Amino acid sequence: MASDLEQLCSYVNEKIDNIKKILSIRNLGQEPALKTTLSKVGDEIITINELLNKFELEIQYQEQTNRSLKELCDSLEGDFKAVEHLREHIPSYLPQVTAAESLTNRADPDPTEPVSAEEPVPAKKPPKEQRVIKEMQFVTTDEFSGVPAYMKSRLTYCQINDVIKEINKAVVSKYKIMHQPKASMTSVKRNHYQRFINEETKDTKGRYFFVEADLKDFTNLKTDKRLYAILNILRHCQRLSEVRGGGLTRYVLT
User: CB–CB of 242/250 below 8 Å?
Assistant: First the structure.
């Protein structure tokens, strides 16, 4: 019982000491000579906090870049292995050129033999130039910092750029079908193509755009409040604009 009372007294005395310290610090803050110093300390704390936020955003950006580079490295490694496999498994029915045959073909012609004029080799047609499909640029850390807090809510820099990556996947998939010859399309792609044509308007002609159906067909994104909030941020960052009509919202890449 006595030990319990001693612990209680110790606890109460500790609280009293803390209150005294707080009162003394508060009184110090009222002194004119210290107000300027405390104000400067407060400004420095705010600056440090902003700097830490920028560091956090930069770390998130570097982590995303690192993931992208790792994916690229894995892709290149797979391509290299495929090339190595092809080199080691050249089909036996292909003609093999030996060193002797190569030298024979390159030997000087016999001056006594008549030289036959070689027929000109027809020039190969240049390959068709591939159309470049426009993609949305990622949001920078400075742009993300300039987004109002009420827009961002709890959304992070990486979450926004992850959605941009999915949007680009949908846009590329859509316009690959649009640029594909109709004769080589499957029935599913023909249906997609017809929908794309029906969704075109005079305001979207010659521009790249997507609709919610494209996100559902070509990505795993859910059309929920979070997605609409990110689309609103992308509109604020001038990554897209909206064209409405016929009960449909078209998100045009800018």
Answer: yes
Within 13 Å of residue 101, how many CA atoms lie on the same side as its CB? Answer: 4
| Cβ–Cβ under 8 Å, residues 199 and 253 | no
Question: Is this structure's pTM higher than 0.90?
Answer: no
Looking up tokens 């030997």 gives 107
pLDDT tens sequence across 42-72 = 788 888 888 888 888 888 888 888 888 888 8
Query: Residue 124: phi, psi to the nearest 5?
Result: -75, 145
Using CA atoms in the order 143, 148, 154, 156, what is the torsion angle rounded to 10 degrees? 0
What are the tens digits of pLDDT across the range 174-184? 999 999 998 99
* Six token digits for residue 144: 């993300």
Q: What is the dihedral of CA 155, 160, 166, 169, to 10 degrees?
A: 170
- The span from the CA of 77 to the CA of 241, in Å, is 39
Q: What's the token pair of residue 254?
A: 């800018």
Looking at residue 12, its amino acid is V
Residue 231 has a CB neighbour count (10 Å cut-off) of 20
User: What element of type H or E holds 190?
Assistant: helix 187-199
